[in-house]
Amino acid sequence: MKRRGFLSTTLKTSGVLAIGSLPAFNIISRKKLYKDRLGIALVGLGSYATNQLGPGLRFTKNCYLAGVVTGSPDKAEKFAIDYNLDDKSIYNYDNYEEIANNPEIDMVYVAMPNNMHAEYTIRGLQAGKHAISEKPMSTTYAEGKRMTDAAAKTDKRLFVGYRLHFDPFHLEMMRLGQKQVYGKVLETDAAFAFPLTDKKRWRLDKVMAGGGPMMDVGIYALQGTIYTLGELPTAVTAVEKTKDKAFYSDIEGTLEWSMKFPSGTKNILRTSYEDGYNYVKARAEQGEFSVEPAYSYNRLAGTTPAGPMVFPRVNQQALQMDAIALSVMTKTPNPASGMMGLRDMFMIDKIYESMGTGKEVSLAGMPQVLDRM
Ligand code: NAD
């Protein structure tokens, strides 16, 4: 293949890769070098894979970068140099299935536009690998169901890239809310929004994204509310609040919704591509606790009635991938499961249904998956 030839040349000429081509190094396979770790192949080398997942894999203890799948020879070359990958660890979208013959790859991590998650996750599962799909798991519940069905059929584990389930600030929101440290939570307010106006971005394309900011960032507010309360909603009511309907013509520009919980806790959630906000707040009987900014990769800040939350800086992606890898190796459950992703797709479908009518929509039939402390 052209790209393979290209990479071989790079291997010979690059100072960095020359180290990787020393006979002594080649004798030891990466699997032996990283024994007791799972090998992950990143599928789709876009912004998140390049700037967060790849670098995150430099900090992991339970997994390592074992391969990449990309349509771009340039990106393949850059990853080969940056991560010392050899030719046999690099695949394209046509020969993706050949990962089945690569024992170093235990798991695929799909970080592509939302409407491609299902296809590439299922192809990875069918190649005999465990899989992580980036969030949102899919563009609809039906697509997500195909993914969980494929995992069951192939007897492989399926996860969603829910990094915040492993972040100390969010674990603290769960603890304070679920254990009622400041009494019963009476009210929550969660919102994530950022301005997005570049029409060339797939995130503004309804087919590729599956929807608007709800799919992209609203899902964090949805999750934050549920894991702070530690209970599942039974109904949703959504109202579209788009300011520029001419520009955001086929997706929501701004959306507000609320959920009905068995506890009766009041809540409001918001997401938008026309504004900027980034928080999760809970008002409990004995005071308010919150995280703001809440959903960024770092520099989160939290407050409680007892003072600020103080936690060391972490690499969320490394924590997430390590926890997932460990759960595979030890055959134990992990909160960022495919079933949790499916639960969220069920809710998002219903939120969009409600947005269409403005009426409350029942969540009867939703997968009953909950991350409880
Ligand atoms: P991106 O546009 O930067 O990358 C998308 C990748 O898919 C690119 O490598 C692109 O080449 C590839 N691709 C293959 N076929 C394509 C096609 N037909 N059109 C467009 N791209 C195509 O996007 P991103 O920001 O890296 O997001 C990728 C996924 O990761 C999304 O599902 C997103 O929701 C998710 N994401 C998650 C987080 C998080 O914090 N967990 C953060 C950012 C993105």
Helices and strands in order:
Blueprint: H1 2-13, H2 15-20, H3 23-27, H4 30-33, E1 38-43, H5 47-56, E2 63-69, H6 73-83, E3 90-91, E4 107-110, H7 117-126, E5 130-133, H8 141-154, E6 158-160, H9 168-178, E7 185-193, H10 206-209, H11 213-229, E8 235-240, E9 254-260, E10 266-272, E11 277-284, E12 287-291, E13 302-304, E14 307-309, H12 316-329, H13 338-357, E15 361-362
Parallel strand pairs: 1-2, 1-4, 2-3, 4-5, 5-6, 7-10
Antiparallel strand pairs: 7-11, 8-9, 8-15, 9-10, 11-12, 12-13, 13-14
Helix pairs in contact: 1-6, 7-8, 8-13, 9-11
Bound molecules: nicotinamide-adenine-dinucleotide.
Write a structural description.
The protein has 373 residues and is α/β, with parallel strands linked by helices. It is built from 13 helices and 15 strands. The chain has helices spanning 2-13, 15-20, 23-27, 30-33, 47-56, 73-83, 117-126, 141-154, 168-178, 206-209, 213-229, 316-329, 338-357; strands at 38-43, 63-69, 90-91, 107-110, 130-133, 158-160, 185-193, 235-240, 254-260, 266-272, 277-284, 287-291, 302-304, 307-309, 361-362. β11 (277-284) and β12 (287-291) form a beta hairpin. The relative contact order is 0.14. The model is unreliable at 1-27 (pLDDT under 50).
